[in-house]
Design a protein that fits this description.
Number of strands: 10
Strand order of the largest sheet: 8-9-1-10
Distance between the termini: 20 Å
Number of helices: 4
Structural class: alpha+beta
Helix content: 25-40%
């Protein structure tokens, strides 16, 4: 998070209840993967990208990617390229100026929308734990060079090497009060406050 760390407060939560929460995601994860695999299989795709907007934790599908040599049933426009497990990928859509391309896009959009509906109760891991504790908070930091104003949002994850501990970075509202507009969240009583140094050390422990 670079120098933006002063805009965050840091916490850990640990114990048997946390272990149960972590374990409870297994079933959700399994169902989520199944829905995502069904979408990939429907289109012969190899990968997908997820949404990552303001306060969005990647729970929804945005686009699909195919191996670069995939033989599409219609003319396509490559939107971007990437790689997965050593395979070159293309993220594509049907060419909008062809009848076949438009039909393909209609089917693709419809299937992605249907999948996203089914994923509403099957969030991403980060979305799941942030939602469980009700600590999603978004806002704006200070201007950052040529890149406009930094966007701030709650981050969360497992404490490396532990199965009963989670770490959270939650935007605070102390700095630059004139333009920081955060929704207020109530920090759960079982959260322990950390310094940035403690948070960094825990996040990077083995």
């Amino acid at each position: 998070m670079g120098s933006s760390h002063k805009h965050y407060d840091y916490y850990q939560v640990e114990g048997e209840d946390v272990k149960k929460l972590i374990d409870s995601y297994d079933e959700i994860s399994s169902k989520r993967q199944q829905k995502l695999q069904e979408l990939l299989d429907e289109f012969g795709a190899e990968a997908f990208t997820t949404t990552s907007g303001f306060g969005d934790k990647g729970s929804r599908v945005l686009s699909l990617g195919w191996v670069s040599y995939y033989s599409f049933s219609c003319p396509v426009t490559v939107k971007s390229r990437g790689s997965l497990d050593g395979k070159s990928l293309v993220f594509a859509r049907g060419k909008g100026n062809t009848k076949e391309g438009r039909a393909f896009n209609k089917l693709l959009d419809s299937s992605i929308k249907r999948t996203n509906e089914s994923l509403k109760t099957l969030p991403s891991w980060e979305g799941y734990i942030i939602d469980h504790y009700g600590v999603l908070k978004t806002g704006f930091g200070e201007p950052s060079g040529n890149f406009g104003i930094a966007m701030l949002t709650t981050y969360a994850g497992l404490c490396p090497g532990r199965d009963d501990c989670l770490l959270f970075a939650i935007p605070n509202s102390r700095e630059h009060e004139d333009h920081v507009k955060h929704g207020e969240v109530i920090i759960p009583p079982n959260f322990t406050r950390l310094t940035y140094g403690q948070f960094y050390d825990l996040s990077n422990s083995e």
